[in-house]
Amino acid sequence: MSSENPGNTERQRNPAPVRKIVPLAVARGPHEYIPGNQEAPVQLTSMVDMLKWAQNWARSRSVWPLGYGLACCAIEMMAAAQAHYDLARFGSEVFRSSPRQADLMIVAGTVCVKMGPRLRLLWEQMPEPKWVLSMGQCANSGGEFYDSYYTVQGVDTIVPVDIYVPGCPPRPEQLIEGILKLREKILKQGLKLRDEEGNEW
Amino acid sequence: MSVNQQPDANPLGETSAEGYKSQEMFLNMGPQHPSTHGVLRLVLTLEGETIVDCTPVIGYLHRGMEKILENRTIMQGIRYTDNSDYLSPMLCEIAYAGTVEQVMGLEPPRRAQYMRLLVGEMQRIASHLVFVGTYLVDLGAFTPILWTFRDREGCLALFEALAGSRFTVNYLRVGGVLHDFPRNWLKECEAWLDRLEKNMADLETLITGNEIFEARTQGVGYIDSGQAIAYGLTGPMLRASGVNFDVRADRPYMAYREVPINVQVRQEGDCYARYKVRMQEIYESIRLCRLAIDRMPPGPICARVPIALRPKRGETYFAIENSRGEFGFYYISDGGEYPWRAKMRAPSFCNLSILPDLLRGHKMSDAVAIIGSTDIVLGCVDR
Questions:
Q1: Nearest residue of B to residue A171, measured between CA atoms
Q2: Does the CB of A67 have a partner CB in chain B at under 8 Å?
Q3: Smallest Cβ distance to A149: which of B67, B146, B188?
Q4: Is pLDDT at A133 greater than 80 in this prediction?
Q5: Is it the case that residue B9 has pLDDT exceeding 80?
Q6: ipTM higher than 0.90?
Q7: What is d(CA A110, CA B39) in angstroms, rounded to the nearest whole number?
Q8: CB–CB contact B188 A1 (8 Å)
Q9: CA-CA distances (angstroms) from residue B128 to A35, B119, B225?
Q10: Which helix (H) or strand (E) holds B118?
Q11: Is the pLDDT of residue B40 over 70?
Q12: Which residues from B are below 8 Å from A75, CB to CB?
């Protein structure tokens, strides 16, 4: 809680062990799981592969979110963007207000029936490449308002979602972890992201 | 046509006195907007830059909370009130728990009352810090939001140590509170209050006396006291118009009966006055927190109530002073576990009703300053 730590002598005597990176599927616990660094090094065999990797590397390192905070999770999103849990160091330098200038739509908060068509409209206004991060349990699946007459049970009924961040509200560090996983997902993508029906390549 | 002819009657609109052809434009300050503090939609009728009329459209965050509360037991329902005013969840929980206690005729123990006072005032500080930060970011200043959110992190870390979650704490129960303070929590709280006072002094040097801020907020959005009472405003919006009404002082509840409050009132009624009232309330809350820490009585933290709580038949209204105004519940109990009706009197909903009247005649950029100064939270408006 208080940041004044009198001494790091404990750390100096027993340094934390270096974590070896394993893919998520075989990780045996949080000590072997580093978000954003799951995949084994890529094998770039052809020119196309190298171009693909370079393009996606650049895209993943500068994902600009659309400031689409709806409810309580918006406050945690704002807190993640402020100085304590800085989101800008991961490339999300600015939260764009206009969907035409944004890459990532972070749906933070409960989506109501009245808001649903607006959400879809905003998503359609975003230019490719675009990704959606569903933040909080209300956006993931309706959450605690599961029996409400006016909430959409999960934003993935309206837009295709790439990353789900659970929590109510998720801590800023959880949101940052979601963005790091998104980075990795972007790195794995091909040159084209979605075809006309919305299926991923 | 020659230059000496009169211009044709403008098919689009009237011709103003200077000869300019103008047309009223409908501008949608939509539900997705960085400055509307949530999903508020304002349909503005603009004549050039001047706002002629404004229609707020709400309901973009209506989750049916009051209906949901009818299908949850009281202990489950306390969690839902967190989501209504999501910037001050502790205070909303105090309202719901206090209402049920009033229906049952139950008085929480003194330690619980002082603990509620302490966390309530801490929550008020956190909420007003968000107000200051977001208000200034709407007006264009970026540094204050970084500073206020840093101070708020201290408060949220304390809440996490106490209740398990930064906000959406599920901390209040009917009859008291859930957990006692962890070891050294009170000392950490005092350390946070000391740091906060120092940081507030820094913040004041940045904002108060800033010419741009004063030019944008002084004289803008004037509400006179009769109008404020007529619209049912409460909270800092009312106190900035000269009306001395604070639920903690006029209808004291729980520990506020023993701890007197200095109600912060200003007479100017403009955006600057509302900002100053909230800043002064932060200082007042710091004083109350220190008082509560000094006077914390020993004893039990919760009265013994059954888990399957069945309040007896009856109805009651109980209100507390939220950071936005009077937050109350009108609770009708039919003797069962579930409430028959739990109506939330949400302060932001009533504070929003003055917005059309207030925005008329102002320019577009003043609209942002005025909406920010009302400090509405859409979770509270739409529930």
A1: B166
A2: yes
A3: B67
A4: yes
A5: no
A6: no
A7: 11
A8: yes
A9: 35, 14, 22
A10: helix B110-139
A11: yes
A12: 86-87, 130, 167
